Amino acid sequence: MNPAGLVISTGETVLFWVIAPLMVLAALGLLFVKRAVHAAMCLVFVMVSMAVLYIAQEAPFLGVVQVVVYTGAVMMLFLFVLMLVGVDASDSLTETIRGQRWIGLLIGLGLAVVLGSVVARAAFPPAVGLNGGDPGGVANPQALARVLFGDYVVAMEAVGVLLVTAAVGALVLTHRRRLTPKQNQRSVADARIKALPDGVVLTPLPSPGVYARSNAMDTPALGPDGEQVPQSVSRVLRIRGQERPAPHVPADELVHTPESERDA
Amino acid sequence: MDITNYVVLAAALFAIGATTVLLRRNAIVVFMGVELMLNATNLAFVTFARLHGDLTGQVLAFFVMVVAAAEVVVGLAIIVTIFRTRRSASVDDVNLLKG
Amino acid sequence: MNDVIGLAPWLIGFPLIGAAILLLGGKATDRWGHWLGVLASAASGVVGFILMFRMIGTPAEERSIDHHLWTWLSAGGLDVDLGIRLDPLSLTFVMLVTFVGTLIHVYSVAYMDHDPHRRRFFAYLNLFVAAMLTLVLADSYLLLFVGWEGVGLASYLLIGFWDTGRPSARENAVAAKKAFVMNRIGDMGLIAAMALMFSAVGSVRFADVLPAVAGDGTGPASALISTGTATAIGLCLLLAACGKSAQFPLQAWLGDAMAGPTPVSALIHAATMVTAGVYLMVRSGPILEAAPTAQLVVVIVGAVTLLFGAVVGTAKDDIKKALAASTMSQIGYMMLAAGLGPAGYAFAIFHLLTHGFFKAGLFLGAGSVMHAMSDQTDMRRFGGLSRFLPITWITMGLGWLAILGIPPFSGFWSKDGIIEAAFIPVEGQPWRAWVFGTVAVLGAAITAFYMTRLFFMTFGGRRPRWTEGQHPHEGSPLMWWPLVFLGVGSAALGAVLGIGGTFTTWLEPVVGQAEHHEPVLPVPVIITVTLVVVVLGALLAFRMYAVQLVPEEAPRGSVLTRAARRDLYQDAANETLVVLPAHGVARLVQVGDRDVVDRGWGVLPQAVSWFGAVFRKAQSGYVRSYAAGMAGGVLVIAAVAWLVVGLGGAQ
Amino acid sequence: MFPWLTALIAWPLVGAAVVGLGSLGRSRTGSASAGVGLARPLALLFSLVEVVLLVGAFAAFDTGAAAEHQLAATYPWIPQIGASYAVGVDGVGLLLVALAVVLVPLVLLAAWQEQGRDEVRLRRFVGLVLLLEAFMVAVFCARDVFLFYVLFEAMLIPAYFLIGGFGQGAGRRQAAVKFLMFSLGGGLIMLAAVIALYFLAVGAGVDPSRAFLVDELVGVDLGATAERLMFVGFFIAFAIKAPMVPVHSWLPDVAGNASPGTSTLLICVLDKVGTFGMLTLCLPLFPEASRWAAPFVIALAVISVLYGAIMAIMQTDLLRLVGWTSVSHFGFIILGIFTFTPLGTAGSSFMMLNHGLATGALFLVAGFLVSRHPEKSQRITDYRGLRSVTPVLAGTFLVAGLATLSLPGLATFVSEIMVLIGAFGGAPAGSAAWTVAAIPGVVLAAVYVLLTYQKIFTGAPAEGLEDLPDLKARERFVAAPLVAGLLVLGLVPGLALTYVDAPAEQSAALTAVDEPADAAAQMGSDK
Q1: Number of Cβ pairs closer than 8 Å across A and B?
Q2: N or C end of chain C: which has fewer CB within 10 A?
Q3: ipTM of the predicted structure?
């Protein structure tokens, strides 16, 4: 290391040694966690840490962009899609393709070894450092902008086109062709009236049986006949099996709904 | 501390990302692996920019980010479309190319 | 002569135009088409007459004229003109074809009166006349071949004339095909002969080829045909002649060819087309003379066919088939004569001429009988017809006497000449004169037997053996006038042309002058012996079929009779010796093509798909497998690159 | 001077573009297209104008120098690899161009109702036919080996779609693939030879920017072994194209499954590229190797003659039968070419034309017959006794059949007899013997033609076929020119022989370069 060029401060060293292991751990989380949401969280951590390292490495602009683009946009997109696909859909980690796990691990390790040894054996020139390299220079964002809109302006424009194209592409890809006529308020109302004989309720559903004991959103209301009204509990709670029986009704007046029926 | 530690970290992250691509079956997680690999290269770029005192590395990292953003948009759109038709986000279920 | 030579093309032209008009004119020509046909044939005959009279008036040495029309094909050293050779030989044929042809045309007008396709019939007849005249007038082998196949086509069309709409339609069609195919087998010989001529002489014109064989120095010195080549050409030509003239071993088609309408049998399968083989032999005389071996084979073929036809003729009950067998036998005589060299050529052609008349007359007479008997052809169902069909009876009687060779009827003059020529000794082979002479006499005896049998089974007998509902009567004058003409010809033609050697002298410019040789027996002895055996044969037949009753059903007969009825097993022999092996080969080829060639090529795609199946397993369809492959590949490349560069290169 | 050949090549391309344009991008069922019903008349018009162009080309052609490649034009195409756009025809090429140009309108007319009424399908069909015409004309004109190769392969594209997409048989797709695979296989071997030829020629001192031009390549000494290898490469491709035993397997399948019009174009014109290539590329470029291979080629040719004829006799399918007869006839053509006599070569050249007319007539008439059958059956035994029902059809079939069996008076006879007589005196060892062995082919031809005629047209009419319609006016217009052509060329073959004679002399002289004594004798006997 050439101290004349670049001196890495102790603070940075500490920062690195704190963040780097955490980053590796979080990245490994990508491999081992079961739920995709957790994996996304791990990745968010890696990316934010990356932003920190960028800033530490004299790239404040990139650090900010990293936070804005990656954690702010890309990862949000991931989460949206995750929610679309199903947040709680957990991924089984058992391997279905024969030998894939070992092949994958072998390749991963191999990559690490090859890359690591390349880095280890490579002879780097003395580090210069950005300020050292540009003594009378301006601050990082301005310098970067000069290069970006000077030497690379055509590439910049091309990338702009690419982004637009990608946006349009995403629109086209996710566009669903309308197979049925568009529903307006009128037709929805008509359809509901028409479905009346099938047991559709026109009026608002009954609200859950709110009892002072808890916030009680999970407790079904009681009908005029003393029966519990299952629809009064949110569907999500019902599916999760988190609804509770209405406690205050005397046992002889209650028709207890078995667990299985409630789930259905 | 040696500046090459950053490069080693980048290499490690890249390898982990690649392994993720190879081992995970959830398309979204696979995609995250790809993002991790891209980030790892970006770290290397930034590090080398600093090492050489040349901002071009940072510019390149910037472009990688932009392209990655575009790629994510399209990639996720594809995943969503596939999920819509097949009700699955597992990459193993999409094997129509089987010979 | 040269002032009328321009008419010569019209000999062929008239009937050809007639055929074209009738074929292309469609139904519009139905009403008058048959008369157009007659007219075309007659016009050709008139032209023939004019040419012949002018030729008679020409000095003998100028009687061979090659009339060039236009160059037909000229390429790669082969030049063939569309040219006409007029000489006594071709004119003899022209007269025979047009005269007999016209008579038969006239006869057919009445005979085919009720046929809805009479126009087409006349178109084919005209086509035949045109082709036959092309054959005899050609000045090169190639043009001769055009006519040769042309008559084959006409024969095919006419044998199969009734190939739909009758119960026997399919058999007629098969007979037509059989005739054409067997003719084609013969044609191979003509093609091969032409190939040999071209490679030896560089031409297929009579004027180039024949002198080259004779070695008279008129052809290019290097192009003289050796004896071996001449033998090969001669045998090839003989093959062609055998096919066309129904000579052994290609004789089997003639009997079946009787499926055609009777005028066709008279014109094509008796008087003219079948004798084309004899014409070819006589025309190619110089080649045969240069090849004694080929000559001997010709004589043998003639002798065998002569006896073959005669034996078959004794057993046939179908009047047309009996006559067909007789035709075959008589052409055997001509072929035998043609193989005897210059001494026999004139008599071969003479017999051909007289035979053309009397056999056409006999066939037309048979047609007349059939016409009267509702198309019955079985002679066992005839008998006693002389009272009902007097004209037919008399004219057929003249033809009968002519074919028997009873003096002074025409057959005597020609056939006797052949028998005498057969007895002329050949140097170094004394057995030949005796063997072939005896065969010729024997043939005459058998001829007498079967023709007498035919005649008396039809007209004689005390008791008719008709099927029910027969009311025989003479046909219209259109039918019996031709019979009369032919009957007169049968009676008188031989004497007119034979006494004093008129005909022999007429043909001399073509066939050359025969050196006079004495037969091994004195001529009067030969004539006497021949007449005696002929009368004996006739008497035997008279006793069996006129005096005794003829059974209506054919008796079982001896082994020989049964064999003769079945044409001496010719069809069975062909079937066993040619058709079955050929079919076997064809099956073999077919199976070979499917199972060896086709399947053999199929191995290639199979191999490809086998490899594909092996490598397909790598394509699991799992994107992660592909990714693993890619990453592994990158790893390997990186490792290799690093090892090579990093370890091998300077650090 | 007006570029006749280029015009002849370009015009059908224009036609294909104009007619075929409407067919792109529309679904098969889409019917709402502008100009409904125009496809066929428009294509016919284009093909007829092409005939007019052909007449112009004939007028501009000097028959006195029929051995020269006339109407020639050469432009650099890809100078980097020495490929040029070079066209030019000698007499043989011109006749084959004429064959292609004349047959196309007849095929269009014959197929008038064959492909249904769907306009888009019709546009595709006629567009492909015109495209094929352009390629076929071009390949006969090509004077650049590379251009020839490209066109040789390009022809496969329309042919493939015509067989597979517009055929009649159930196995048309397999037949199309088989055709494509065989042709491509041969073409690739040829490509290897083409590349080798280029490099060897450049090595021998030919200007690299012109090293694909045939005229530059003739007479270049390439070394005996290399020449033989390249000869084999070219020859295999041509033998597959001109179906020669044992690489003929694709032909009967195609004939049995393609529509008769396609078969006509394919077998009567496109396959001639094989024999044409042997005559105009193999012999001049590799004379020594041609002599070396001749005995073997002759043997195969004669085997083809007999094999094709025997297989034709054994067929039960009418169209396959016609296909097999072509194997037999191509055998004759190859026999004439590889015996190196002026007469045989001229006969073969003439036969290429005649076979197109005769077999074309037979294919089309057979197609008319099949189209009349209620079930479109191609089985011969499904027909009987049709002469009384459809007399004109029967007559036309018979004439076409007689042309196939080379009846004198028809053009086919002249060419066949020229081949046989010429081949008999050929220079290669065994010519005479093999020629004699080929002669039975004429008997077998009689058998397969007459047997078929007998089965289909004689006897009592088959049930259900008693009132089939006879040939309609449109169909007579198709058959009449072919029959007339056969008759006229049979009676006055000189009309065509003036075009083939000189090239044949030249070709024979090229291959006879080592035997001046023989050539002199040949010249002597010409007198």
Answers
A1: 240
A2: C
A3: 0.71
